[in-house]
Amino acid sequence: MSWIYLLAAGIFEVxxxxxxxxxxxxxxxxxxxxxxxxxxxxxxxxxxxxxxLPLGTAYTIWTGIGAVGAFxxxxxxxxxxISPARxxxxxxxxSGMVLMKLSS
Length: 104
Description:
Keywords: Cell membrane, Membrane, Transmembrane, Transmembrane helix, Transport. The protein has 4 helices and no strands.
């Protein structure tokens, strides 16, 4: 169950990061509220995951899901640039998450 909590926490991290971008410096109330709710959900689920998972594993995978998810969402929803270097960086993050999972 801890891995499910961790995956959900990572998804909420992507939600709050995207909502933060849409909040336009906290000037738009709805995205700002979505961001706050996403942060609360993300941290709450991360806390539940950390009951059973090692700190290093849980935190690395949580931030990795957030980083790669935000990268993909930026490309898909915001038209951000996709380049070989950015793709390589995302693949390195994914590789690190896989190695962290295999080592725990």
